[in-house]
Prior knowledge:
Layout: E1 2-9, H1 18-26, E2 35-41, E3 44-50, E4 63-64, E5 70-78, H2 81-90, H3 101-111, E6 121-129, E7 134-139, E8 148-152, E9 156-160, H4 163-167, H5 178-187, E10 201-202, E11 207-212, E12 215-220, H6 236-253, E13 261-264, H7 269-281, E14 287-293, H8 301-310, E15 314-320, H9 324-335, H10 344-355, E16 360-362, H11 367-370, H12 375-390, H13 395-404, H14 412-418, H15 422-431, H16 437-443, H17 455-463, H18 469-495, E17 500-502, H19 508-516, E18 523-524, E19 527-528, H20 530-536, H21 542-546, H22 556-561, H23 565-572, H24 575-580, H25 585-596, H26 603-621
Parallel strand pairs: 13-14, 13-16, 14-15, 16-17
Antiparallel strand pairs: 1-3, 1-9, 2-3, 4-5, 5-6, 6-7, 7-11, 8-9, 8-10, 11-12, 18-19
Amino acid sequence: MCGICGWLNFDPGLTVDETVLGRMNNTMTHRGPDGDGIYQDGNFAMAHRRLSIIDLDAGRQPLSNEDGTVWVSFNGEIYNYLELIPTLKRKGHHFRTNSDTEVLVHLYEEKGERLVEDLRGMFAFAIWDSRRRRLILARDRVGKKPIYYAYVPGKYFIFGSEIKALLASGAIERKVDYHALDHYLSFLYVPGNASIFQGIAKLPAAHVLVCENGGVRTQRYWDLHYPEPGEKEVSEAEYTNRFQEILQESVRIRMRSDVPLGAFLSGGIDSSSVVSVMQDLSPQPVETVSVGFAEDAYNELPYAKEISTRFGCHYNEFIVKPDIQGIITQLVRYFDEPFADSSAVPTYYVSKAAREKVTVALSGDGGDETMAGYSRHALDVLEHTLRKVSRFLPPALLRRLYHALPEGTRGRNTIGNLAERPDEAAARKHYNLLFNRELKNQLYSDKNTQYDFSENFRNVYNHCTATDPLNRSLYLDIWTYLIDDILVKVDRMSMANSLEVRAPLLDHKLLEFLATVPPKYKRNNGVTKYLLKQVVAQKLPQHILTRKKQGFRMPIEVWLRGDLKEFAEDMILGRPLRERGIFSIQFIESMWHDFLAGKRDYAHHIWQLLILEIWYREYIDNA
């Protein structure tokens, strides 16, 4: 993994300041501690921070084609680069390295911006075509690797792997985008193409951006497509065999590395399945890394150890006793934006532990979002059925019933969802447990503050071509929660430890195949991830296949009442927050006291406010 950044002045006579570019680049040393490089071409320059994985000696960047007219700065891995090289050589291209990076410049010479269509991997890269004075940015299909940019027509275009690189340019004023802040309160993260800063955007997953002649255009190059109703199906055995073939290939090509490689292992079905395939393909015991916490309810280590032992892997176990105040302040700096998914804490620690043993780790990320691992997927199917019955009831009646029922009443949220359009209801499942509309009306000082915070979810939902409710639910999760939460968390926390993480379950060929699989083989009579479990049924113990999903949950209620109590109170009730005037301090005080007294379950809401206040003091107050 690496960090990239660059600057294009639209005035051809205005040279980029290499000192400034170097400062931008050095904000990302954690992403690439093994070296750096800068390429300059008058009004354009780009830089690179390197974490060496493939071709350790010759793979330095930025890297060019034979005559130095096409240059690339690349973050990621192209897993099928060995398969692409022979074809490019037959077309007359000469390779000076054995790195996957050089494939990009030669493939660009052949296909232009369509080069992304041939790539199998995770990537965010910049290509500079010096003859056409043309800059291309591209991001992988599911957005595992990030890229942010700032575009000021008539002046400049700046980009980088992280927001902190853009801020280090000195060209961007640190102004908060309050619409994005409102999204954060709804979802724990800033979704979609925006960022928390005005003037900084993120390139969406599966998109190419072209900047030339002073203008910018973006183009989507990949999406998931689903079968038409009535389209012929094959047998369960054929789906199972095909899934097994693609999974094995996906793992195999992700085991290519010139540095030590291992795997995250939680003891759940996803990571256990990946490790089982890895060990089948490896002549040596696979290094597995697992972390646990002192609290038994948050500890999966016995399951992880059982799986590692079963497959003959080399088991590495770490018990974490976090300095929670110190670690959350540190993590805020790595995210650059407010990010309140508390599972970032164990993700950081498992990445830190893995980096002591390996430089590359495979993970089980993506299994829940692609194979129906969450309870909301079943709720979406249920609500689809209930809508056929409730369509005769006025939405206003359903809303009155929803508001009349006490919070926590079983079925209350379903009634509220049925009162909304299907696309709005789909978004409610992601935000209804956080700061929903009712809570925001009390939280904001300005009671007229109104934002359309579910727009991104509605757009994704309505863009989906699937006709059945389960595939629609999975599609929504992939293009929102997976991309904007799960993969952001894994990227930032692994890069904080200079560790590369690869996710075989998110191989785009596997995702394309799963889109063709009938819903009954994803969730079957209450069995989640049905097809995956069929593939590994002979490998994994029955109790691993059937045990309840645990996930990376954190004891934030314990922390907020214990080690974090004084710190949290100082942050969320302190003078800086009061003086900003965004929130009602009286309402925050009531939330805090109700939480401490055990009257209301506000732990996640307070955690969100705490993270936001740490971010404000770090990125705005002390900028």
